[in-house]
Amino acid sequence: MRERLLVQLRERTEKFIMNQYGDSVLDPAAIAELEALVATVTDPSEDLDVAYVVGCVHSGVPLTCGDMLG
pTM of this prediction? Predict the structure, then answer.
């Protein structure tokens, strides 16, 4: 499950990076995948793959919402 979620979330962040398609990181399914991924580890800071993907998704959200946040 962890590997599948990592692949899905990496694909979402790559899509966002390539074309700034905000729905790829704002989609409720992306948030559900992120929550499920974090739930697979006891401490995400000790799993660099998980921490990296969480950081990528997290950093894409403010960029996508910039206009909405003012």
Answer: 0.73
For the chain, report the end-to-end CA distance as a whole number of angstroms.
37
Contacts of 61 (CB under 8 A, 6+ apart): 25, 26
Q: Which two tokens stand for residue 56?
A: 């990528």
On whether the CB atoms of residues 7 and 49 are closer than 8 A, the answer is no
Hunting for tokens 């921490």 — which residue is that? 51
Write the secondary structure of the chain as one string of H (helix), E (strand) and C (coil): CHHHHHHHHHHHHHHHHHHCCCHHHHCHHHHHHHHHHHHCCCCHHHCHHHHHHHHHHHHHHHHHHHHHHC
Summarize pLDDT for 2-50 with one digit per residue, the tens.
999 999 988 888 888 777 767 777 788 988 999 999 999 988 778 988 9
